[in-house]
Amino acid sequence: MVRIAIDAMGGDFAPEKIVAGVIKTAKELTDTEFQLYGDEAAIRTYLTEELANIKVIHCSEKIKSDDEPVRSIRRKKDASMVVAAKAVKEGQADALFSAGNTGALLASGLFIVGRIKGIDRPGLMPVLPVFNGDKQQFVMMDVGANADCKPHHLEQFGILGTYYSQYVLGVKNPTVGLLNNGTESTKGNELTKEVHQLLTANEAINFIGNVEARELLQGPADVVVTDGFTGNAVLKTIEGTAIALLKTMKKSILSSGLKAKLGAVLLKPTFKKIKSSVNYEEFGGAVLLGVKGPVVKAHGTADETTVYYTLKQIQTIVTSNVITDLVDYFENN
Amino acid sequence: MVRIAIDAMGGDFAPEKIVAGVIKTAKELTDTEFQLYGDEAAIRTYLTEELANIKVIHCSEKIKSDDEPVRSIRRKKDASMVVAAKAVKEGQADALFSAGNTGALLASGLFIVGRIKGIDRPGLMPVLPVFNGDKQQFVMMDVGANADCKPHHLEQFGILGTYYSQYVLGVKNPTVGLLNNGTESTKGNELTKEVHQLLTANEAINFIGNVEARELLQGPADVVVTDGFTGNAVLKTIEGTAIALLKTMKKSILSSGLKAKLGAVLLKPTFKKIKSSVNYEEFGGAVLLGVKGPVVKAHGTADETTVYYTLKQIQTIVTSNVITDLVDYFENN
C-alpha cells in the first residue's frame, strides 16, 4: 500500500484546497493511504467525508511562506512539513507532498528525508508541457535546488532525469539534452563545456547534445539538464512570458471595439483550453529527485485540481520503484 | 554628420532587405550618411534610387552565418562586416550595423572597433518591451557576449546600461536591477551574491535590488544586469515561449470548429497588434556596448522595417554622445 505524507498547511489555500484535493484523490485511489499533517481542527472543518484511507495527524506548528528555510525546519519541530518529512524518513510514509515554502521543503528533503548515497546534489525537476512537438512533455533539472553546480552534479541530473522519464513517464531510452547557449558542441560557459564531455562519455545517458532555450517548449529532449540558477531563470521566464502574453491579449481584445469583443465571446472556450495547457501544474508538481523518498512540491496557488494531479503523480512515482532502482544504481556506480 | 557603416551582406534577406531599409531611412534622415559595404553589383540591383547620402563600398567577401566567428574575421580581410568595422575604427564611420553572424559581429566589435579603455567586457544589450507595466521598455545586459562573468563585469554592465537608458532612451536616474533567483538580498549564486554587494556600494548606480525572471516583462527596472549565459537563456526563452503560445493559439482556433473560426476572423487585427508588440526587434537591435563606437546587431530575419528602426536607433545613439561620455567616465574612474 502506497502511503503519502501530506503537508496540509502549506500553500496559499491551505488547508481547504489541500484537503479537497485529497478527498477527490482518495475516492479514486482507494488502495493508497493519505496522511494529512497539520492543525487537526482546521483540517476536520474541510474533511467533509470520512474515508478509510485518509488519516489526520495533528501538528501544532506550520512553516510560513516567508520563513527562513533551514532555520525554520530546525526550530519548528512540530511543523506539519517537518513531521510529514520525518514520517518518510522513518518509513511510515513513502513520499512527501507540500504546496508550501519551497526552500523549507527542499531543506526538509535534504536534511530530514536525506540524500540517496552517492548523489551529491538532489535536484528540483518539473514536468513541462510540449507545444507543437511530437512529445507530450519533458523534464528539466535542476530548476532551483542548487544555485551553484559542479560539472558532475549535472551529470547526475542526467541519470536522475533518465530514470524518472523511463520509470514514471514511460519513455523508452529517454534522450538527454544540455541547455546551452548554442547547439554546437564547442559552445557554452566553463560549466557546460565540461558537462558536455561528461555526458558524452557516460554510457548510461542517451545524450543528444546541446539544446537552446528558444526550442525548449518544442521538447528538444526528454530530459533537459541545467544548473539550478539557469534552470530557475528559464522556468520563471516561461511562466512570466505566458502570463504577460495572455494578459495583453485579453486587454487588447477588450479595448479594441465591438468587433473584437464579439470575437472574444466566441473564442472563450478556445482561450480556456490554451490557459490550461500553459498551466504546467496539471502535468504534476516539481519533484526533488535524489533523496530517499519522492518529495513533491506543488505551486503555492495549488487548488483542488492541482493537488489531485500531483497526488496521482506521486502514486505513480512510488509504484514505479524509480527510487529503489536509483539507490541500486548509485550504490553500484 | 552621423555616418553609419552598414554590412549589406549580413542577414537572411541580405542584401535586398538591408538596402530597402537603408533607402527608407536615408530619405527620412537626410543629414545622415549611410555607407553600404558589400558586393557592389548585388547592392546596386536593389538600390532603386540614387540618394546623395547613400554610398556603396565594394567588398569581395562576406561572413556567412555558420562561419567560425574569430577565425573568419581574421581570414576574410575583405569581408563586408570586417571592412565596415575598420571604417569605424579608423574614424570614417561612427557606428556599425549588421544583421549577420552574431559571433563574428561581437568579434569585430571587440577586436577591430576595440574596447573602451577601462571596460573589461563589453556586453550585448537588447531593448525589450514591457507588457502591462508603467514603463515602455527596459534594457538587459549581457545577453550573450560573455558566457563566463566575474562580479565586476556585471557592475560595469550596470554603468553601461545606466548611461544608455539615460542618454538614448531619455530615462532620468534609471533604476538598475540584478536578475536573481529571489528578491531577498541574501539570495543568489556565488556570482550574484557578490554582484549584489558591488551594485549596492556603487554610487553611480541607482540599484533597486534583485529582480526575478518571472516579472521581467513587467519592467521591474530600467536596466537589468545579468551574466551573458543566463541573459542569453532568458532572452531565448521569452522568444520561444511567445512563438509557441501564438502558434498554439492559432492551431487551437483553427481546429475547434466554426464558432472559433468565426472568432479568429473577427480577431485578426487584434492578433496582428499583439504579434508586433511581442516582436522586440521593432524596439531596435541589440547593442554591443563598451566598444569605441556603437556596434548594433539586428536579427538575422531582419526585413526593411527592422532595418529602418535599427538605423534610426543608431542615429539616436550617435547623436546622444553616450559613447563619448562613457569613455570619459571610464577614464576617470
Q: In terms of quaternary structure, what is this? A: homodimer
What is the succession of H and E elements of chain A?
Answer: EHEHEHHEHEEEHEHEEHHEEHH
What is the residue-averaged pLDDT of chain A?
92
Report the major sheet of chain A.
Answer: 7 strands, mixed
The neighbouring-strand order within the major sheet of chain A is 3-2-1-4-12-11-5
The CATH superfamily of the largest domain in chain A is: Isopropylmalate Dehydrogenase
CATH architecture descriptor text of the largest domain in chain A: 3-Layer(aba) Sandwich
Runs of chain A in which pLDDT lies below 50 for 5 or more consecutive residues are: none
CATH fold node name of the largest domain in chain A: Isopropylmalate Dehydrogenase
Function (chains A, B): Catalyzes the reversible formation of acyl-phosphate (acyl-PO(4)) from acyl-[acyl-carrier-protein] (acyl-ACP). This enzyme utilizes acyl-ACP as fatty acyl donor, but not acyl-CoA.
InterPro entries (chains A, B): FA_synthesis, Phospholipid_synth_PlsX-like
Main location (chains A, B): cytoplasm
EC number (chains A, B): 2.3.1.274
